[in-house]
Write a structure and sequence with these properties.
The protein has 77 residues and is mostly helical. It is built from two helices and no strands. The longest helix has 33 residues. The termini are far apart.
Length: 77
């Protein structure tokens, strides 16, 4: 059974703008486009793409949670 913990951390205002840098996003898009076109990625490229997708999803989750916290804080006072 998963365990849950709650941490209170201060979220910097700039967190809402966190995203993959443009060059990193372009690299990920290139890898995904090649894969979508049926090209087989090397094992290193596949790991790179998976890692970049994970990072992108993690940053998106942080942005969503930060916006929810700020919205709740604004609504409560």
């Amino acid at each position: 059974m998963p365990q849950h913990i709650q941490l209170d951390i201060e979220m910097p205002d700039a967190l809402a703008g966190f995203s993959l840098p443009e060059g990193v996003h372009e690299r990920l898009q290139t890898l995904l486009d090649r894969q979508d076109q049926g090209e087989r990625l090397s094992p290193d490229e596949q790991r790179e793409a998976e890692g970049l997708v994970d990072l992108s999803e993690w940053l998106s989750l942080l942005r969503l949670r930060a916006s929810r916290v700020w919205r709740d804080d604004t609504a409560n006072g």
